What we know:
This protein has three helices and eight strands; from the N terminus they run αββββαββββα. The chain has helices at about 5-15, 80-90, 165-180, and strands spanning about 35-50, 55-60, 65-70, 75-80, 100-105, 110-120, 125-135, 150-160.
Amino acid sequence: MSKIARMLLILTLIIVPLAVLNAQDDEEVLSDVAYGTFIVPAQSGTLVEATEDLFTLTLEGVPESLQWFISMDAVSAGQYLSIEFSSDWSFASQEELLVAEAVLLTENETITLMISEPDYFDGVFSYAATIISIQPFDETIDADNADIPESFESATLFIPLFPEFAGGLQAGMEAREASMRGSGMSRPCRGAFPNC
């Protein structure tokens, strides 16, 4: 299977919701259903071990705005300023660390991660990361023995939008905006997800 076909398959699996809800008669919302995905493209990056089992994921050449895609109830897409995404996530983590599942697609592998503690400045995003699995595109490499890539070119990070993560970002956005009230600054949110 070609790299392009694999990439399209992975994108389809990530963007399409993990389950379909039929809430007409049942108002219960499943917490393990992703509503959509944040897409973080990068020109290059590194994955460096910080401590045992904890890595620093650094993505360089990240655009000023991230794309998001939602496919629950109605299909919707938009942009979220990278600096606001990082700030909202950080504000949300002040009381309890907000952790997100993510999939990093590089030129040679797909890496499933748990990420937290985002930091964005001047086109560079960094996260604390725990690696869950690595799936090399080269079928001759055993996934259990795959090397962790220390650096890579042209990668995309996909962050599924699970309800707990979405609620954390919303709380972070509200906390960030509350901290700016009375400071003379204008409301910084300009159409960012989920609702501003």
